[in-house]
């Protein structure tokens, strides 16, 4: 049993990138699906597929690499808020990852979104992770 599914999600991605895998598969949840959609929209992953037909739903994520240098589109995945220490921020304290080149995924009252979208909607929330 996994006590922190978000940390598990990020670790599986980090390990697959380090091993230069093309596809990574992991257990699915609503929060992980929303995080995957955000990563796809922002261009950090190539594609994704949700398999809900089986007893235990899974997510398959196709990782994105540079064609010549074989370097991953994701350079760093960092968990910020954990079950033992939640980190909440207001709009004024909203983090900027790599001066706006990376994204922070924020869980707000209006759903999961990036730091830029949360600033635009003028809402704060829990900082889930940083991606650059």
Please describe what this structure looks like.
The structure is a single chain. With 132 residues, the chain is an alpha+beta fold. The chain is built from 3 helices and 8 strands, in the order H-E-H-E-E-E-E-E-E-H-E. It has helices at residues 5-18, 30-41, 115-121, and strands spanning 23-27, 45-51, 58-63, 77-79, 88-89, 103-108, 111-114, 125-131. Strands 4, 5, 6, 7 and 8 form a 5-stranded antiparallel sheet that branches. The mean pLDDT is 95.
Question: What's the short story on this structure?
Answer:
By secondary structure, the chain is α+β, with helices and mostly antiparallel strands. It contains three helices and eight strands; from the N terminus they run H-E-H-E-E-E-E-E-E-H-E.
State the main characteristics:
3 helices, globular, 5-stranded antiparallel sheet, alpha+beta, 132 residues, single chain, 3-stranded antiparallel sheet
List strands and helices in order, with pairings.
Layout: H1 5-18, E1 23-27, H2 30-41, E2 45-51, E3 58-63, E4 77-79, E5 88-89, E6 103-108, E7 111-114, H3 115-121, E8 125-131
Antiparallel strand pairs: 1-3, 2-3, 4-8, 5-8, 6-7, 6-8
Q: What's the total helix number?
A: 3
- Poorly predicted tracts of residues: none
Mean pLDDT score: 95
Fraction of residues in β-strands: 25-35%
Structural class: alpha+beta
Shape: globular
The H/E string reads HEHEEEEEEHE
- Main sheet specs: 5 strands, antiparallel
Distance between the termini: 29 Å
How helical, in percent, are the residues? 25-40%
CA gyration radius, whole angstroms: 15 Å
Strand segment count: 8
